[in-house]
Amino acid sequence: MKKVLMFLLLAVLSLGILAACGGNGNNNAAENADDNAGENAANENNDAVENEAEENNDANNNEEAVELDGELVVYSARNEQFVQALLDKFTEETGVEVRALHEADPLQLQEEAGNVQADVFISNDLGALEYLNQQDLLEGFDPENVESIDEQFRAENNEWIAISARARGFIYNKDMISEDEMPTKMEDLLDAEWAEVENGYAITRGGNGGMIGNVSALRYEWGDERTTEWINSIQENAAGIFEGHGDIRRAVGAGEHAFGLVNNYYYHQQLEEPTDNNVGFIYTDQGEDEMGAIANAAGLGLVAGAPNDENARAFIEWVLEEENQLAFVGESLEVPINTDLEPPYEEAVPFSELKVQDMPLKELGNYFQDTRALIEDAGLDLELR
């Protein structure tokens, strides 16, 4: 009997042990299945992330690898010596052939609106750029690094972007007239006494972009009646009327005229001449109750319907690279609008240290067309002497 009971007890224990073993095996299998599923899911997620990252990298690499070709047509109202080196640099770095029309009239874009030829327009007058924008002849977009240019120096949708700035004033020959004897305000030229200065003073003809901006700023400040009086006064009393400001700075440096009305960077250019460089400069209207120096800027815009639109957008983004913003300033010796960039010459006066006319530069566009008519009616547009 004892042997039978022992046998039964061992059988029960064996069954319990087998059941326990069987239970652990099932649990382990389930746990292993869950672990394997989790690992597989994690691996799938990791693979998806890696694949997405690789796709993004490939996309970025493809963007960087995009090569420009073909041509770019640039109309520029600026002097060729201030622009051509920049265009040559773009060709060298991208392979895009640039065809340029220098000293172009901004209204040529209006004439060609039905048959667009230009891709980019470069101007030394924001009034011209804003006027073209108001005529829907420029197109906006969001180029990379555009935020480096303050909003006041850009059109609302970046149809035009200013890169370099300057102020108006009087360059004078120190051997002929002292600083104390010089006029200090724009309105001083209303007085005929300045016609009596030895060799007199010089101005540009009215069709010059700088003069158009100057007259537009005076219209904003004074109104048309007094501005017309000012135009008539300088036309009558100026001893020399030149095509461009470069002619004025050279004439003043050589003593052909005592002083001349120019943009400030022409003074810096004359200082770099090996001779005839004993000149000074007066920033106008710097007194407490005076309007401040008339300012303007040079910039560029994408022409609406540009035949080479992709190259035009690439060129504008390229110009906005800091290295090329300085290249845009180049030999002109203007002041970069980007305040993070140092002017390319020591004598430059930062705009932050000048009293500048309190006028949004975009306003120049509202006066551009009527200013041209006002100047033409006075006859200053064509006269040279």
UniProtKB/TrEMBL annotation:
Q: Which PROSITE patterns match?
A: PROKAR_LIPOPROTEIN, SBP_BACTERIAL_1
- Indicate the segments annotated as coiled coil, or none if absent: 39-69
Q: Where does Fe cation bind?
A: Y265, Y266
Q: Mind listing the UniProt keywords for this protein, alphabetically?
A: Coiled coil, Ion transport, Iron, Iron transport, Metal-binding, Signal, Transport
Question: Which GO cellular component term is one of those annotated?
Answer: outer membrane-bounded periplasmic space
Transmembrane segments in this chain: where?
Answer: none
Q: Which N-terminal stretch is annotated as signal sequence?
A: 1-19
The protein's matches in Pfam families, at most eight in alphabetical order, are given as: SBP_bac_8 (PF13416)
Q: Which family does it belong to?
A: Belongs to the bacterial solute-binding protein 1 family.
Q: What is this protein called?
A: Iron(III) transport system substrate-binding protein
Q: Which organism is it from?
A: Salipaludibacillus aurantiacus
